[in-house]
């Protein structure tokens, strides 16, 4: 009797436990809307772990609304040459890679080595990466993992001396050389379009073009406006005395004006706006530059907004409608900023003068988001390009690739 009574009591206790478990609410059984609120407080690593708990969590964490909230906490680096589909899986991947950018998690590798020091320039279009090396411009295909494969059939030749700077746009590559010449090729087949000698009495230190207009600047203190593809002896439209060595030029996307950056050594504003049609000065963007605070790189964000950087250790955003500086970011290590690139959203990537240091900025913040050292010995970052997962940096003796598509 005692044994039977004990068995009945045990059965009764287990039945009550099952009834209580059916009536209790577990974390997994919460409504989806409540779980989304909880997930909003989790970081990328916590969400990854929660997705491995059960199928319900895995399904909910894939939803776009979860990662849209997470993405607002990071500086998400965009890619101008790629169009992302707006679904949760892609946004989840972008947040993972953005977390690596923000925390400095990457794997670096050397793509090219030079025996002697160079002043390389690097550019990227929809299909290829172009890198200058001496008097030639080399073409590379970018693989899925960020590594490159050289296309020797598209190596661009024409200069008798080093290539100073080149620009790729609308399936055309235009370069200026130390020999004072201009060369132009088709980026689709590598065929030369024209070669003009002695465009300047000194090296062509910067060049840009838009539609049928070319703008060049030189160490000979002159800016010149040319007709694209015109006869060699009739293509010059205007020759402008810049009163200082010219380091950078950029044509307004609207096509009516262009900006020039000079060395800032002759008591004139190093950043000025010129009218393309007349060659006359339109505006001087002045913010009490120190003597020698030259402007090394300029990039237009829109027809009315441009970014400039240089020896004064600042990145500045200018509004050309009011000719005022609306935002500025100072390099914390007081280093000259040689180049910059943006994704035309929030991310700005700049290259400095020492130890191949690259900084990631968010225009919504005052301080930099992260810094990356790409050289063991001191070398300026002469130029850089990036997409959402990879950063390519041109140093004096190497070209490096930083891959942020890694897992911690």
Task: Characterize the structure shown.
The structure is a single chain. The protein is of the alpha+beta class and 408 residues long. It contains six helices and 28 strands. It has helices spanning 2-23, 32-39, 44-50, 55-61, 64-71, 88-103; strands at residues 107-113, 122-124, 128-133, 136-142, 148-150, 163-169, 172-177, 182-186, 192-196, 204-210, 213-218, 222-227, 236-241, 246-251, 257-262, 271-275, 281-284, 295-302, 305-310, 314-319, 324-330, 337-342, 347-352, 357-362, 370-373, 383-386, 390-394, 398-403. Strands 1-28-27-26 form a four-stranded antiparallel β-sheet, with no helix packed on it. A four-stranded antiparallel β-sheet has the order 2-3-4-5, with no helix packed on it. Strands 6-7-8-9 form a four-stranded antiparallel β-sheet, with no helix packed on it. It is globular. The relative contact order is 0.11.
How is the topology of this model organized?
Layout: H1 2-23, H2 32-39, H3 44-50, H4 55-61, H5 64-71, H6 88-103, E1 107-113, E2 122-124, E3 128-133, E4 136-142, E5 148-150, E6 163-169, E7 172-177, E8 182-186, E9 192-196, E10 204-210, E11 213-218, E12 222-227, E13 236-241, E14 246-251, E15 257-262, E16 271-275, E17 281-284, E18 295-302, E19 305-310, E20 314-319, E21 324-330, E22 337-342, E23 347-352, E24 357-362, E25 370-373, E26 383-386, E27 390-394, E28 398-403
Antiparallel strand pairs: 1-28, 2-3, 3-4, 4-5, 6-7, 7-8, 8-9, 10-11, 11-12, 12-13, 14-15, 15-16, 16-17, 18-19, 19-20, 20-21, 22-23, 23-24, 24-25, 26-27, 27-28
Helix pairs in contact: 5-6
